[in-house]
Amino acid sequence: MLEQPGCAAFDSAGSIAHGCGVSQSTALRLTRLLGFRSYRDLRRLFQDEVKLHFGVRA
After folding, report:
1. What is the sign of the dihedral through the CA atoms of 33, 52, 19 and 16?
2. Least confident of 20-24, 30-34, 49-53
3. Quick one: three-class SS letters along 8-47?
């Protein structure tokens, strides 16, 4: 996710998990361990960072 923030910003939890070779449940557990309530919240963080990087205003 850190190496490819664009993927984390727009891909589903299942897609990210598959790309990492883990189950979707594992990806969701990681999301919660990082302090997010949902994968959507984590993805929103990455979306905001991508927007900031490219100068997109929401």
Report:
1. positive
2. 49-53
3. HHHCCHHHHHHHHCCCHHHHHHHHHHCCCCCHHHHHHHHH
